[in-house]
Structure formats: C-alpha cells, structure tokens
Amino acid sequence: MAEPITLNVQRFDPSTDAEPYVVAYEVPVDDAAANEVWTVLKALHYIHRNVEPITYDYNCRWGGCGRCGVAVDGVPKLACWARVEPGKSYRVEPLAGFPIVKDLMVDNARAYDRFVQSDLSIKTYRPMDEVRALDADVWWGKADGSDDAVSLKRFNRCRECMSCYTVCTALNDMNRWDSFIGPGAMMQIAARYLDTEDQSDRLSQAVFSGVSQCMHCGNCTSVCPAHIDIEAVNRKLLDDAVARGLIDGKEAATPSYPLL
Q1: Of the spans 27-41, 87-101, 108-122, 194-208, which averages the highest pLDDT?
Q2: Domain residue limits, the chain
Q3: Fewest Cβ atoms closer than 10 Å to its Cβ: which of 77, 174, 189, 250?
Q4: How many degrees, rounded to 5, is the angle at CA 66 between CA 64 and CA 71?
Q5: Which residue has the higher pLDDT, 114 or 98?
C-alpha cells in the first residue's frame, strides 16, 4: 500500500459556522493506483464519496470550463489540473476575494459580471461577402513567437476561471473594483481590439474600463492556467492608449510589484 495523499481542506458553512476551519483527510492509494495521475479534484471526489460530503464546483474535469478553481497551498489552480502525489500533504482552500457559498465553492459573480457588462460582442457592419480575412499574424502570432502573448489564439484559451481576479493587486490590495474592470475582462477587450473585424473603439473602452489602474504586478499571468500573459496584454493596451493620446504618459507609469 502506497502512502496516502493528505488534503487539508478548508470547510465553512456560512449558515452554521462562525468561521472557517480545516479538516485533514487522508486519501488511500493502493499499489495499483500509485502510478496513476492524481489530481486535487480526484482526491476531493474520493473524500466526497467515501468519507463525508464536501461542497466544491466542477464540470468538465479536463481543464476546459474553469469551474473547479481552488487555492492549492495558497496558489489559485484548477483542481482538475493540480497534481498531487502519494505521501505528500496539501492545503486546499476556496479562491480568495470572493464570498464563500460553502466549503470550496465561491460566488464569483462580482468578477464574472465584468465579462457580461463589458459589451464584448463583436461589432461588424460589413456584409459577409465583404468581410476581410483575419490577419494570420493576429490570430496565430508571429512565426518566431515574438507576439504570441497578444495573439487571439492565446486569448481564446481563457477558461474564465477567475483565478486572475483572486490575485489582482489593483482589485484586492488597492480596492479598485469601482475603477478597474479586472484582468480577465480587460483581456477580452484586448481580443476585440486586435480583431480586424471588430468595428468598436475598443481602445477607448479599455481606457474607460480602467486599463491605467493595472499595477503590472504580473500575478494574473503567474496563475493563469491557460498560460496567457495577461499583464503583457494590459501593457499593450496601455501603450497604445498613450500613443493615441487617450492617456497621459505619466498616468501610465505605475509601480511594479513582485510576483507571487
């Protein structure tokens, strides 16, 4: 019998508990399963089915939907992608910055509403027979990968897991929820800005949505499960806004913070 996997799971029911508490669960791993890929989600399934019910969110189980976001040892991750190993111990908590519904499930509506309210539908007024082909460099990125960080193909990998919102310095440390739409929604604005078929003034939208409020700490990039360089995207929007005269250059000069 291999050594068990230990998950120290934060439990909390707002309707009955005064404050969160942690319960240590051991997930047994027999020799036949020792070489299998174990994830936080798989371990949570075992606990939920064999020990006691735990509330957590998930859907696709392969990293596509973004619903299983949790903090593993303090770092936001998708539970279905976060690997765990027999004989090791892990701390599993709900994503920070959101109200806890119960246990590991949070209410991320505050962040998700930013996507909905930012009017991200593509605006095009050309007849279909006049629509231009999308520039291959914009979609795929340069052949040498030099601008892959701001290519639409990479933006399309966003899971809307809201991990970037839990570590955003501007939102959580500076409390700029009223002036900054947040990293994920700003990235979606950038995608429309780069799309040659979009007819809206997305750069002005980015300025109105607070692109200059980004602290360029890079935390969003460091936790993104889709490996999108969100900070580079915000920087491009900001630089282009300065070049167009929409933002004063001094306003764009914000302090930088260390990565998580």
Answers
A1: 87-101
A2: 3-106, 108-244
A3: 250
A4: 135
A5: 98
Confidence grade of residue 252 (pLDDT, cut at 50, 70, 90): low
Burial of 244 (0-12, 13-18, 19+ CB in 10 A): exposed
Q: Whole-model pTM?
A: 0.77
Same fold, 3-106 and 108-244: no
Q: Which residues contact 34 (CB under 8 A, 6 or more apart)?
A: 2, 86
Residue with tokens 């735990």: 54
Q: If you count them, how many residues does the chain have?
A: 260
Residue 89: which residues within 8 A CB-CB, separation 6 or more?
6, 7, 8, 24
Tokens of 216: 């360029």
Single out the residue of 21, 25, 23 nearest to residue 6, CA to CA.
25
Band (80; pLDDT cuts 50, 70, 90):
very high
137 has a pLDDT exceeding 60: no
Give whichever of 61-65, 99-103, 201-205, 209-213 has the largest mean pLDDT: 99-103
Q: Please choose, from the candidates 144, 239, 248, the residue with its C-alpha nearest in 3D space to the C-alpha of residue 193.
A: 239
Q: Is the dihedral of CA 167, 169, 172, 178 positive or negative?
A: negative
Classified by CATH at the fold level, domain 108-244 comes out as Fumarate Reductase Iron-sulfur Protein; Chain B, domain 2 (1.10.1060)
How sure is the predictor about 8, in pLDDT bands with cuts at 50, 70 and 90?
very high
| CATH architecture of the domain with range 3-106 | Roll (3.10)
- For 134, what's the count of Cα atoms within 13 Å in the CB-facing half-sphere? 17
> Rounded distance, CA 163 to CA 234, Å?
16
